[in-house]
């Protein structure tokens, strides 16, 4: 994505296009939203009181649900209908966004590897890296940042702070790390903050898998990620 690349060449940008400032290769970015400044990454795998305490203290105005399945036996309040009602009671908006969800096929392919303890550490790491790339490509194929898409409407909407929510405990154990990293990189003026109870990240659920986080993937592998973002 060299300097001078047009919105049509990128494929995912159709409006609000502006050159970035201060990036290491002047890659283009979408214009700074008029209101949104912060996206929080948070798990719903906690009690309702604890969850909405985090939302209140962080000034979150909208919860964006990234889960494929919205039935969650470990926290019944987090089932889709109950979460919608709970958000209403606490004065927070709620919106599930299909454009930001991985497919079940991608999840199944990943877990065939990472749930197999007989495979080597390197094979687990390779499966996770491949999954991140596939999620990034899927988002690009959906043109998730294009004008008129739900994500674009959220970014350029009324809220100053939103929370992107999935059931995975740790940000880097979850596809929301891909979603938020791509938005932060390609939309001007957005900061991503990982949000945890008491400010302490939980123990990683599958630490041997996560040898490369999405930040290093996007930074160190521009050509492959660039192709994925263009949907090539």
Automatic annotation (TrEMBL):
Region called Disordered, residue ranges: 1-32
UniProt cross-references to InterPro entries, sorted A to Z: DUF488
Protein name: DUF488 domain-containing protein
């Amino acid at each position: 994505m060299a300097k001078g690349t047009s919105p049509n060449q990128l494929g995912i940008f159709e409006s609000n296009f502006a050159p970035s400032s201060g990036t290491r290769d002047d890659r283009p970015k979408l214009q700074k939203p008029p209101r949104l400044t912060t996206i929080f990454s948070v798990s719903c795998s906690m009690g309702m009181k604890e969850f909405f305490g985090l939302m209140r203290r962080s000034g979150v105005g909208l919860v964006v649900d990234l889960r494929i399945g919205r039935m969650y036996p470990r926290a019944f309040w987090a089932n889709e209908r109950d979460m919608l009602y709970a958000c209403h009671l606490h004065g927070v908006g709620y919106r599930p966004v299909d454009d930001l969800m991985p497919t079940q096929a991608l999840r199944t392919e990943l877990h065939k590897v990472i749930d197999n303890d007989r495979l080597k550490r390197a094979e687990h790491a390779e499966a996770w890296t491949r999954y991140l790339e596939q999620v990034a490509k899927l988002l690009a194929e959906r043109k998730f940042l294009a004008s008129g898409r739900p994500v674009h409407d959220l970014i350029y909407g009324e809220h100053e702070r939103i929370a992107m929510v999935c059931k995975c405990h740790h940000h880097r154990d979850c596809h929301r790390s891909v979603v938020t990293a791509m938005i932060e990189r390609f939309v001007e003026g957005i900061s991503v903050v990982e949000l945890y109870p008491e400010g302490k990240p939980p123990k990683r659920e599958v630490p041997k898998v996560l040898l490369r986080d999405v930040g290093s993937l996007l930074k160190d592998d521009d050509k492959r990620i660039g192709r994925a973002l263009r949907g090539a």
